[in-house]
Amino acid sequence: MKIRITAIIALFIVCVNVIAQQVSPFKKNDRVVFLGNSITEAGYYPSYIWLYYMTHFPNMPLTVIGAGVGGDRAEEMFKRLDGDVFAKKPSVLVTTFGMNDTGYFEYNQPGAEAFADSRVKASYEWFQKIEAKYKEQKQTKMIIMGGSPYDETAVFENSVPFRNKNKAMRRIVDFQQKAAAENGWEFFDLNVPMTDINLREQKNNPAFTLCGGDRIHPDNAGHMVMAYLFLKAQGFAGKEVATIDIDGTKAAVKTSSNCTVSDIKITDTGLIFNYLAKSLPYPMDTIVRGWNYKTAQAKAIDVIPFMEEMNKESLRVSGLSGDYRLIIDNEEIGTWSGETFAKGLNLATLTNTPQYQQAMKVMFLNEERLEVERHFREYMWIQYTVFYKKGLLFANNREALKVLDQNLDNGWVKGRRDLYTKAMSPEIREAWQKEMDVLVSMIYKINKPLKRKITLIKAN
Prior knowledge:
With 460 residues, the protein is α/β, with parallel strands linked by helices. It has 14 helices and 14 strands.
């Protein structure tokens, strides 16, 4: 009976692990393209996902490319497949849509249910065309991702939500999931887990939302939640930065993981050893970035267990009595009790460690890369929103500029005119690409963990 129970427990653990990994991790040299609408065009969640790979897998270079265009539905995405998506030669393609497909203000008007039916039907018909094109791409791994939700439940002053819009979006997620299963593609849903977090947090703060003040566009923290959920679907919960566990009385390593610990010595004042990790801690930006955003990336850790599940750089030292100063590479990090060291510190939460500062450089370079990539996304917005329907796709000539100027009553077009006058020149686009290439090359040059000297000195 005991053997049978043990087997059942083991089977349960295996099943949980299978469920936890819904999306295969990216591989070395993958070209991962994220196709979507304005939420994807903003670029934050793909950039945050790539930053995880940059820091946790420093010797596994890959490329993440944004292919989002604001306002897109399945229809517009289908029209962009050849010129904007497949042209990027993806080895992995992540596709998400549904927010714009389902409409907006019509949900608070008569006939909302029939309207929802018609919009879901139209989305499905265009998705069938996407599906047919995807079947031709034998060398590309397809991932279908249910989109982030429309938040109907947050309570904002002078803001009436579009009732049952997210319900219509869920219907799109359902046919996406069904198609993925039928085609042997991978599927992952953001809608349900993000809605669950919203509802949980709104019990204490009715104005809480991951979906931004417009209930649609997640800000930095919301994008980090999206990145976390995607990485968790790839099975990275429990993937540590490193673990160091030392017996301070014997100067011996009890356990270590994803790192090398060497040259441990007991000194007159404490302990000293060398530490070389195989990963860097994941850095969290504390600055709010992006138009009209209000919460920084780092605020996401208030609602998700990212630090505990995916960003633990554990230092445990037993056998210490009293307080000890922690010094890494001659940098004073802080002072903790022997009891705290015995329980363990998560060094990834300490932003003043040399390894965290190294990771911050990677983060800033990645953010610079994203800023340049946005030039390309705005350029593609102009191409497919203005020129496609005029038969001037990629014409980039005086006629195209004339047509653009005829549409300057559209504020979105007007705001992109200056960028387009630059981007229409292939030399400018080539320079932008070279700038991104230099930034990525620099990232994979400086993201390699360095050997660190860790010293514990008994405090007075």
